[in-house]
Amino acid sequence: MSIGWDPIHSYWAIYAADKTHKLYKSVNEGEYWDSILDPYIINPTCVITDENNAQIVYIGKNDATPVWWSQDGGQTWEERSGEYPNNITNTNPLCFAMDPNDASIVYLGCAVGACAVFKTDDGGETWDEKPLPASPVNPMVNEIAITTTDPTCIFAGCSGKDTDDGIWLSTNGGINWNQQMSDDDVYSVE
Fold first, then answer.
1. Cβ contacts of 84 within 8 Å, gap of 6 or more
2. 13-24 CB burial, b ≥16 within 10 A, e <16
3. Residue 53 DSSP code
4. What is the pTM of this model?
C-alpha cells in the first residue's frame, strides 16, 4: 500500500496492490475502494505513490515489463522499466521506496536474482543495478526504507539465503551495501 496527497482533487489517495488481482485506489480514507481497470495493470506485486503528488504512481508486476507508471492518478499507464543497457533485468519486483525529497529517485527491490535492487534518478527512464554484496545470486529484497534525514541512507530487508538475508545498509544511495545489520529473514523495514 502507498498513500499520497492528490493536489488536483485535494484528497488523500491510497493505492493497494493485489498480486492475485488488480490495483485498488481509495480516495475516502479506505472506506470504499475502486479497482483500476487497465489491461496492463493486472496482478501488481507492489505499488508506490509520491506522498506529495498521488497523481504519480508506480506499480511492479511479475512480467517481462516489471514496472509501469501513471502520471494521472491511474487513468493511463506507461512502461517504465528503462531501456537496455539501463533497464530492470529482474522480472520479479517485490517493493519500492521513493526518496522523500525527490520523487524522481525510486528504488526497486526484487526476488532472488543476479541483481535484486535497482535505482532510477530520472523517474524510471533509466535504472541502474545496485546489487547487494551476495554471490552469485542476491536474496529476496522484501522491503526498502529510506531515512528522511539522509536520503542516501537506505535499508534493505532481505530473506531467502542463509548468509545474505537480514538487513543491509547503504550510506551512499545504494552504490555500496556496506553493512549487514542482521542475518535473519526480514520482511519489513520502517
1. none
2. bbbbbeeeebbb
3. E
4. 0.94
